[in-house]
Amino acid sequence: MNSLKSMDEITIDPMRFRRALGNFATGVTIMTAQNDQGEKVGVTANSFNSVSLDPALILWSIDKNSSSFPVFEQASHFAVNILSGSQIELSNKFSRRNIDKYEGTSYQTGAGQAPILDHCSAVFECERHQIIEGGDHWIIIGKVVRFRDEGRSPLVYHQGAYSGVIPHPLLQLKETVEAEDIGEMHQGHLYSNVCYLMSRAFKFYQTDYIPKQLVTGFRTSEARLLLVLGSGTASNKADLPRDIAMPMREVEQAASILQKDGLLIESDGFFKLTEKGKKTAHYLFDIADSHQNEVFEKYSDEQKDIFITMLRDFAGVA
Ligand SMILES: Cc1cc2nc3c(=O)[nH]c(=O)nc-3n(C[C@H](O)[C@H](O)[C@H](O)COP(=O)(O)O)c2cc1C
């Protein structure tokens, strides 16, 4: 009893708490609704979860400060739009305040006039079932009345950065065994499929590289910000979420952590690396370069150049 009481008394720093929660990888949704007056709202949310199969219930939580909440409270229905891997820009757009989020957004209307966004992985149309108070958030429970399952590869959110889904290395091992089982012809087929080979090569590359980067103590989001600022590809704040594949609030949180460590300063509305920041970015580039050199050790410079030219071409970068 006593120990529980003393645990309650520990003050939790909300920023560090949020950062620790970021270790739980989630998908990304945009919750949408429309009231009888035709006011449409939409909020990027990763607090979505399933609750019950029968009846079909889901939940998510919305910040009490969200200007969209009154419409979710008034509307009879809302829609859960599960974002696919290609919808980072939409996620960023619906996480911004004081803009018309529907301008230039393609959608249809579903149950209770809730907007249904195009090109999602899945959509759950819900009747508002219950709203419960949960600290500084409202927990909204919806009863699913209709859903569509497009099965597109989902957008993933982890440690404040967007990611995609790739098979785990152990599954790849299993795949190899299965490939052998189904005979040489199909194995040959699989092993000359560029999509399969690129995803497998990327996974192996990353499996060895990420631990080397994490040893520096930086989160993915902080390391990405340092690398992008260090490479000088972004020249204003608005370009950063696209270049780093992170929402603006995470860019800002990573920036404030780097700022506290004396690695960057904010000047003229943009971030600039300090001398210490430049050295750190240089160090991160060294880790990336030495890993790349290790991987290319057994190939000639000519082979490496051809490979890089082809990758640049596939990636659509000059
Ligand atoms: C990846 C991601 C996940 C988010 N998850 C939530 C969430 O679960 N609940 C929430 O209230 N806000 C969440 N937000 C922030 C809201 O999207 C943002 O505060 C909201 O759109 C503000 O606009 P509004 O005031 O127009 O409602 C998230 C933002 C991002 C980028």
TrEMBL record:
<keyword id="KW-0560">Oxidoreductase</keyword>
<dbReference type="InterPro" id="IPR036388">
    <property type="entry name" value="WH-like_DNA-bd_sf"/>
</dbReference>
<protein>
    <submittedName>
        <fullName>Flavin oxidoreductase</fullName>
    </submittedName>
</protein>
<dbReference type="GO" id="GO:0042602">
    <property type="term" value="F:riboflavin reductase (NADPH) activity"/>
</dbReference>
<comment type="similarity">
    <text>Belongs to the non-flavoprotein flavin reductase family.</text>
</comment>
<dbReference type="InterPro" id="IPR036390">
    <property type="entry name" value="WH_DNA-bd_sf"/>
</dbReference>
<dbReference type="GO" id="GO:0010181">
    <property type="term" value="F:FMN binding"/>
</dbReference>
<dbReference type="InterPro" id="IPR002563">
    <property type="entry name" value="Flavin_Rdtase-like_dom"/>
</dbReference>
<dbReference type="InterPro" id="IPR012349">
    <property type="entry name" value="Split_barrel_FMN-bd"/>
</dbReference>
<feature type="domain" description="Flavin reductase like">
    <location>
        <begin position="21"/>
        <end position="164"/>
    </location>
</feature>
<dbReference type="InterPro" id="IPR050268">
    <property type="entry name" value="NADH-dep_flavin_reductase"/>
</dbReference>
<dbReference type="Pfam" id="PF01613">
    <property type="entry name" value="Flavin_Reduct"/>
</dbReference>
